[in-house]
Design a protein that fits this description.
heterodimer; A: about 240 residues; alpha+beta; Ribosomal Protein S5, domain 2; about 30% strand; B: about 280 residues; 6-stranded mixed β-sheet; Ribosomal_Su5_D2-typ_SF (chain A); DNA-binding (chain A); RNA binding (chain A); phosphoprotein (chain A)
């Protein structure tokens, strides 16, 4: 890493620790978050969930192309770069999911005719990638100071062949699972903002996963709060 | 009558200037400008086997939204990591013909998202067992290219595409292929054709969320534009979900999701009935 020559303290983030990995009462992997690590974007964050790691950068509110401008809101753009290869149709689909989730929480009407760009780079993929991208995007938006009406988090559930629920699955668990469900929940009322599923499952299993995801989101939001508190208490 | 004429002028102007307010007035009375109730679908029609040059085809009209699906079967070498499987390759095309919002050129985001959605539905629902498409393990397999082209875009493209794909696949007839032992070439017997084994019948039901609270079924193009969120549920006949596609937008509670599920179940029955009728009327071929 280059030496930082900035006079104002570059707040090299606090590694917040999530709850103990796979401990009783909380089956999410160990997570960590680092903010403000890139100098060019207005906000940046790196989110780690177990071995999955995503780096996010936010530019905005900035100038927007006339063809893309919306007269009364900010135009949100999401770019997702995979670890290997060129972005394909699957990345476009994920970009749409993340963009619509951000649009639901970002107060775009405060910055009309501007653009807010979220760039996500997958650093390593060890399961629950979409959820990690969502979390990184949220932390980066907070770091950039973009006004939002709520925070959001991503939680992944995997259902294996006998119906047991595993939260935050690893790649191996995802491959062996019968169904993998990813939800984005908001922090105010734990409502379902986004859902993307793979595989076959029943209605009751969906409700079960949703309830488990809502409970798990408590931990993620508490982690957000702790890591932000730790960051701002030092300065 | 001049007052009726004036009211007509006012309504059309109001609809253009304040579309959201215009819609709200209807939604308050639990109906929509085109006369439908909040849980009512548009008239669905399906026409199977209209393209003679394709191995299977279907045209689906959901109100004004028109999607045509053509399936072509070709030979290919099976993937090295799965030598006993064939391929199903879907592609959704939204040409400038269907709506002024699309330009010609490489597929835009909407088309790519729809293609990915259809690929996910095929994968998740296991509509076709890929092993059925294998002719000779490791050497030859069928690849089904499913091209979905939208001819008229008036909202709810995902439902129309899923239905068109299902109907077209039910219409596909593959000839019998044998591998000649001596020449190691494939011999196609065009006189002996058989239908595909369609294992499940996934049906998509789309909803639009208005003002964060109200859910309406089968949104038109205008309604999709005004909505604050969309939700698509793909269900098969046993009530199992293949896909819960909610790309952001307003939040939903668990209870609202339950209502959507029950509507999706009824829609599945309607669609299955329609398709069975059409196929039955076509059988003597």
């Amino acid at each position: 890493m280059e030496e930082e020559m900035h006079t104002d303290a570059k707040i090299r983030a606090e590694i917040g620790t999530g709850c103990s990995p796979r401990g009783p009462g909380c089956s999410l992997r160990h997570f960590a978050c680092e903010q403000n690590l890139l100098s060019r974007p207005d906000g940046s964050a790196s989110f780690l969930q177990g071995d999955t790691s995503v780096l996010a950068g936010v530019y905005g509110p900035a100038e927007v192309k006339v063809s893309k401008e919306i007269f009364n809101k900010a135009t949100l753009e999401v770019i997702l770069r995979p670890k290997i290869g060129l972005p394909g149709v699957a990345e476009k689909s994920r970009e749409r999911l993340i963009r619509n989730t951000c649009e639901a929480v970002v107060l775009g009407t405060l910055h009309p005719r501007t653009s807010i760009t979220v760039v996500l780079q997958v650093v390593s993929d060890a399961g629950s990638l979409l959820a990690c991208c969502l979390n990184a995007a949220c932390m980066a938006l907070v770091d950039a100071g973009v006004p939002m009406r709520a925070l959001f988090c991503g939680v992944t559930c995997a259902l294996d062949s006998d119906g047991t629920l595993v939260l935050d699955p690893t790649s191996k668990q995802e491959k062996e699972a019968r169904a993998v469900l990813t939800f984005a929940l908001d922090s105010v009322e734990r409502k379902l903002l986004m859902s993307s599923t793979k595989g076959l499952y029943s209605d009751s299993e969906l409700q079960q996963c949703l309830a488990a995801a809502q409970a798990a989101s408590q931990h993620v939001f508490r982690f957000y709060r702790e890591s932000l508190q730790r960051r701002y208490s030092k300065s | 009558d001049s007052s009726v004429y004036l009211r007509y002028i006012f309504n059309t102007c109001f609809r253009t200037v304040e579309p959201l307010e215009y819609y709200r007035r209807f939604l308050k009375e639990n109906c929509r400008p085109d006369g439908r109730e909040l849980g009512e679908f548009r008239t669905t029609t399906v026409n199977i086997g209209s393209i003679s040059t394709a191995d299977g085809s279907a045209l689906v009209k959901l109100g004004n939204t028109t999607v045509i699906c053509g399936v072509k079967a070709e030979f290919a070498a099976p993937p090295t990591d799965a030598p006993d499987k064939g391929y199903v390759v879907p592609n959704v095309d939204l040409p400038p013909l269907c709506s002024s919002r699309f330009r010609s050129g490489p597929p835009g985001e909407e088309a790519q998202v729809a293609s990915q959605f259809i690929a996910d539905v095929i994968e998740n629902s296991q509509i076709i067992q890929k092993e059925d498409l294998c002719i000779s393990p490791g050497k030859l397999a069928w690849v089904l290219y499913c091209d979905l082209i939208c001819l008229d875009y008036d909202g709810n493209i995902l439902d129309a595409c899923t239905f068109a794909l299902l109907a077209a696949l039910k219409n596909v007839q593959l000839p019998e292929v044998t591998i000649n032992e001596e020449t190691a070439l494939a011999e196609v017997n065009l006189k002996k054709k058989s239908y595909l084994n369609i294992r499940t019948h996934p049906v998509a039901t789309s909803f639009a969320v208005f003002d964060d609270t109200l859910l309406i079924v089968d949104p038109t193009g205008e309604e999709e534009h005004l909505a604050t969120g969309t939700l698509t549920i793909v269900m098969d006949e046993e009530g199992k979900l293949c896909c819960l596609h909610k790309p952001g937008g307003s939040g939903l509670t668990g209870a609202k999701l339950q209502d959507c599920m029950s509507r999706a179940v009824t829609r599945h029955k309607e669609v299955k009935k329609l398709m069975d009728e059409v196929i039955k009327s076509m059988k003597p071929k």
